Amino acid sequence: MGLSWHTDSDGEYVVGDKLLAITEQEALAYHDAANELYEMYEKAAEYVIENELFELLDIPKSLIQSIKNSFKNERDNHLYSRFDLSGGIDGTPIKLIEFNADTPTMLLESSLIQLLMLKSNSLEDKKQFNNIYESIGKKIKSISKSKSAEYSRFLFSCISGIEEELNTTKLLQKIAQDEGLLTEFSYLEDTYLDDKHDFMFKLYPWEEMESFEESQNISMLNPSYTLLYQSKGMLAILYKLFPDSPYLLETSFKPIKKKYVKKRMFGREGANIDIVDERGEVLTSTEGIYDEYKAIYQEYTPFVKDEENSYYQAGVFYSDGACGLGFRKGAEILDNMSKFVGHVIL
């Protein structure tokens, strides 16, 4: 398909050439976990807003009012997101690692490429947990109707120079076009907000848009309240509110008395992570550019590992409900060089 946004350090392409076999029961368990977790996130967001806990989650002050407004008025405009989960295979418990609610990647690989992988492996008659393309199409059509506009106008945007983000943004634009919506594309640095569009999707982190000035006429996708969901501080809020949930790991704003993973609130791609044992000794760590953000401390849980010592993390996409599954494999701390792995239900 001409995709070449990066290869691993060993020269292999980002998409693996094998499929991971799971059972229908395992696929259903991932589906149910994502749906339940999303409901928990909505309740946790209400708690954060009611108790003004924005500083605790490292939310920029300039975005607080926008977050409140969008959560109140645009609750149904969350286009898509991705839960990262450990476990779920061979009887291992499903645990929430984090929630990519604002700018999730792996969309093209999960929605389309792994379907083609069924054909390339002569498995056309087999199923996948994968209704991502159709679900996002249905959701964006619903969002369009929220403004009572027969032909809503959508602007899709990302920054230039990052091929993966361009592929993701163009795919979302294509999904909208398939639903009969009017669309345009422009790079974010060339974009000026005016009355020309009803909705704008931007594949750019909200926490880096502190100087953003809202337009009264254009609605943003994903809305600014998804920054609450994106903050890893929500993992500690969730554990406080739902300590008995089977999907949650003990998480705190202070170090805990067990093996834990230290993460930054808005860290990405496995950067600035420490794995620390019960004695406080750092076992593994990664460098990065996110030291400026506050930290959270999440109970360590092992990823599923294969015979080649590769670790697997599940990614469940959500668009008005859990709608698709894909996997990443790599080192114990999964970074930007981890590989996408498709699946098949056997």
TrEMBL record:
GO-annotated molecular function: ATP binding; ligase activity; metal ion binding
Keyword rRNA-binding among UniProt keywords: no
Keywords assigned by UniProt, alphabetized: ATP-binding, Ligase, Magnesium, Metal-binding, Nucleotide-binding
This protein's record includes keyword 4Fe-4S: no
Stretches of the chain forming a coiled coil according to its record: none
Annotated ranges, domain Glutathionylspermidine synthase pre-ATP-grasp-like: 1-345
Source superkingdom: Bacteria
InterPro entries (alphabetical): GSPS_pre-ATP-grasp-like_dom, PreATP-grasp_dom_sf
Pfam families in UniProt: GSP_synth
Protein name per UniProt: Glutathionylspermidine synthase
Organism this protein belongs to: Sulfurimonas aquatica
